[in-house]
Amino acid sequence: MPSRPPPLFNEKRRLLTLLTLVVIAGFLATSFSAFLASRDSVRDGIAAESLPLTGDSIYSEIQKDLLRPVFISSQMAHDTFLRDWMLDGEENADQIRRYLAEIRLKNQTVTSFLVSARTLHYYNADGLFKQVSEGEPRDAWFFRVRDMAAEFETNVDADMANRDTMTIFINYKVFDYQGRFLGATGVGLTLGTVARLIDSYETRFQRRVFFVDRSGHIVLTGRSFSASQRTLSQLPGYAPVAPALLAGGARQQQFSYAHGDSTTLVNSRFIPELGWFLVVEENDAQALAPVHEVLWRNLTISAVITLIVLAIALYGANRYQSRLEQLASTDRLTRLLNRQAFDLVFQQAIRETERDGSPLSAILLDLDHFKAVNDRRGHQTGDQVLRQVAELLRDTVRDSDVVARWGGEEFVVLLRDCPEEEAARLAELLRSRIASEIAVAGRPLSASLGVAEHERSDPPERFFARLDALLYRAKAGGRNQVAVDAPSVDV
Q1: What angle do CA 218, 219, 220 make, to 5 degrees?
Q2: What angle do CA 370, 376, 379 make, to 5 degrees?
C-alpha cells in the first residue's frame, strides 16, 4: 500500500495553491479593472491634460514663430533713431531705407515699413514707396491705426509692394516723446510662411490647429482645411460650442462635439498679441484605438503575468529612484538645477573644454531690489517673480546651455562652446527681456549681470569670484546693466 504524504505537506501544497489562485485572480481582476479604468482615464486625460499640454506647447512655438514679429514691431516703434529721424523732418530718406532693409534682412520678414503721419509718406526697404491717402481704400489701414486705442494691431491684407501677396502685417503706432502720434511702423509675414508653420505644428503634435478671430472667421489654417471652411460655423459640429469659444479669454477652454461615430475634443485660448483664438483639436477615437490595442494585447499574455508584475514593480521602483534623484538635483521653486547639481555640470563642462579647446562662458544674474519685492509684496509674489525669471531664462538660452538657481535671487547660465562676446550679447538680451517682460505691481523688474569666459588656469573658485566681482560692478554702476571682462565688447 503506497504511503500517503504527510498532512503538513498537504497543508503547504493547499496553501501555495490557494495563494497562487488568489494572485492569479487578483492579477486578472486588476488587469480587467485597469483596462476599464484606463479607457475612461484616457478619454478624460485627453481633454484635461494631453490636449491642454499640447496647446501650451504650440503656444510656446507660436511665441517663437508668430509673436516674434510683434516684438520686432514694438522695438521699431520705440527705436529712438526712427523717432528722431521723423522728428528731424525726414530729410534723408536713404537713412530710413537702410534701417528698414536691415530690419527685414536681420529678421527675415517679407516686408518692413514706416508711414509718417506728417508727410503721409510710405517707406519700405526699397525707399519711399508711395504717399498714403485717406480717400484710398487700400490705405484705410493707416488711418484706422491712427484712430484706434490699442498700440498695435495684427492685420491680414494684400502687400502692394510684394505683388499683392496676402501678408500678416503687425501695424505698430509710433509716438514722439510727448506721446503725440507720429506714424505707424512694423513688419509682415506672408500667409504662405505662416501656413507652413501651422502644417509643421500639426505634423509634430498630431493635432489639427487653426486660428479664429473674435467674429468667428478662420484666419489661419494648414492644409487640413478645405477652401470652403472659412468661418467657425461652417465646421461640422462647431455650432453648439462656437458662442462659448468666441466669448473666452486668455485662459484655456475645453470643449467637445460629436461628429459621426466619434467625439472631437477642443482646446482654445485667446492670444491678445495676435487678436485671435488658437484652436487645437483631437479626435478621441483615433487616440483610443492604439490604447485599446495595447491593453488587449497585454491581457493575452496571462502566461507570463507574474513576470510582468515584477517588471512593472521594478520599473516603478526605478522611476521612483529617478524621481528622487531629480528632486535632489532640482530647485523646488524654479525647477532649475540647484547649486550642487550645477557644480557637477560645471566640472564636466571644464573637462570637455580642456579636451576639445572650445570656449566656456558663464553669466551670473542678480535681480535688482528683490528684497523690496518680498518686503512690500510678500514672499508669494517674490516666488512668482522667481518662477517667471526662470521660465524666461529657459526660453531664451540655447538647448545646450545650462541654467541654475545660484541662490536667493541669483541665477547662473553656463554657456558651452560660447566665447565671451556671444555670452555678453545673450546677457544683454536677458537683461532687456527681464526689463520689458516682467513687472511687479506695474513696475518693471530689472537685473544686473556679470559675464566672463573661463580661462584654463582658473580654478572654479577664482572663476566665480570674477563673476561675482563683475556682478558687483554692474550693481555699483547703477544696476540694470551688464558687466564683462572686456569693456569694449559690443553688447
Answers
A1: 105
A2: 65
CA distances from 110 to 291, 366, 433 (A): 44, 38, 25
pLDDT at 85 over 80: yes
CA atoms of 374 and 449, how far apart (whole Å) = 21
pTM here is: 0.42
Q: Does the structure show a pLDDT above 50 at 123?
A: yes
Does residue 270 sit within a domain?
no
Q: Greater confidence, 52 or 311?
A: 52
Site of grid cell 519700405: 124
3-class secondary structure per residue, 138-204 = HHHHHHHHHHCCCCEEEEEEEEHHHCCEEEEEEEEEEECCCCCEEEEEEEEEEHHHHHHHHHHHHHH
Burial of 94 (0-12, 13-18, 19+ CB in 10 A): exposed
| Beta bridge partners of residue 170, listed in sequence order | 154, 187
> What does the pLDDT look like over 273-287, one tens digit per residue?
677 888 888 877 666
Query: Which domain, by its residues, includes 348?
Result: 339-484
Instruction: Name 373's bridge partners.
Output: none
Mean pLDDT of the chain: 82
In this structure, what CATH number is given to the domain that contains residue 471? 3.30.70.270
Does any domain span residue 402?
yes
Which residue type, as a one-letter code, is found at position 285? Answer: A
Residues of the chain above pLDDT 70, percent: 76
Distance (Å) of CA 341 to CA 62, 291, 355, 362: 32, 38, 22, 16
Burial class (CB in 10 A: 0-12, 13-18, 19+), 73: buried
Report how far residue 450's alpha carbon sits from residue 428's, in angstroms, rounded to the nearest whole number: 10
Q: Which residues contact 416 (CB under 8 A, 6 or more apart)?
A: 349, 352, 353, 358, 360, 400, 401, 402
46 part of a folded domain? no
> pLDDT digit string (tens) for 137-159?
889 989 999 999 989 887 777 66
One-letter identity of residue 75: Q
Q: What's the rounded Cα separation, in Å, for the pair 427 and 433?
A: 10
The residue from 154, 170, 192 where one domain ends is 192
